Amino acid sequence: MKLVILDRDGVINYDSDHFVKSAAEWKAIPGSLEAIARMNQAGFKVVVATNQSGIGRGLFDMDTLNAMHEKMHRAAQAVGARIDAIFYCPHAADSNCECRKPKPGMFRRIASCFNIDLHGVFAIGDSLRDLQAAAAAGATPVLVLTGKGQDTRDNETLPESTLVFDSLAHAVDHVLANTPRTSK
Ligand SMILES: [Mg+2]
Ligand SMILES: [Zn+2]
């Protein structure tokens, strides 16, 4: 099975320093959903792993998160893209849960739900903690320079073997060029 793991805010949709906390505030980055469609067409399952501590902090509730994700699914559908699953951590930063990135808990759950070894799986994010969670779970960390990505590149020490691309569209070019066509 071919699978790719995406962060949400700053990768698929515009990020906000004040949290994306309503469906109205969820806005796709141009080209991101089309990039997902290209992966779907190449046989990839596309799975999102996103920290959503705004829930734990009381900034928005589960109904609102669901509404954001419905909007994302609909926008994806409109360009022929499909997001196969969304894993989220709803906990506040100080909760010490196992799922909040940089911990690899969500990645481990993805591995077990899809019964897949994450070795060689590309995990694309814009923050250091996305890359750290990917590396800790054995996936290949990929930084995109949308969202917080430029800041991450300029100010953080990236995990060894992190790949860097301008945007999800360019990261997907690399993923598709570096995946054997015959692999299932
Ligand atoms: Mg992000
Ligand atoms: Zn959590």
TrEMBL record:
Source domain of life: Bacteria
Cellular component per GO, a single term: cytoplasm
Catalytic site positions: D7, D9
Pfam families: Hydrolase_like
CDD domains per record: HAD_HisB-N
Stabilizes the phosphoryl group (site feature) positions: T50, K101
Catalytic activity: D-glycero-beta-D-manno-heptose 1,7-bisphosphate + H2O = D-glycero-beta-D-manno-heptose 1-phosphate + phosphate
Magnesium in keyword set: yes
Site-annotated residues for Contributes to substrate recognition: R100
Protein EC: 3.1.3.-
Subcellular location: Cytoplasm
GO BP annotation list: carbohydrate metabolic process
Binding site for Zn(2+): C89, H91, C97, C99
Cofactor: Mg(2+); Zn(2+)
GO molecular function: D-glycero-beta-D-manno-heptose 1,7-bisphosphate 7-phosphatase activity; metal ion binding
InterPro entries: HAD-like_sf (IPR036412), HAD-SF_hydro_IIIA (IPR006549), HAD_sf (IPR023214), Heptose_bisP_phosphatase (IPR004446), Histidinol-phos (IPR006543)
Pathway(s) of this molecule: Nucleotide-sugar biosynthesis; ADP-L-glycero-beta-D-manno-heptose biosynthesis; ADP-L-glycero-beta-D-manno-heptose from D-glycero-beta-D-manno-heptose 7-phosphate: step 2/4
Keywords: Carbohydrate metabolism, Cytoplasm, Hydrolase, Magnesium, Metal-binding, Zinc
Binding annotation for Mg(2+): D7, D9, D126
Record note on quaternary structure: Monomer.
Family to which this protein belongs: Belongs to the gmhB family.
Family matches, as PANTHER family: D-GLYCERO-BETA-D-MANNO-HEPTOSE-1,7-BISPHOSPHATE 7-PHOSPHATASE
The protein's name: D,D-heptose 1,7-bisphosphate phosphatase
Species annotation: Propionivibrio dicarboxylicus
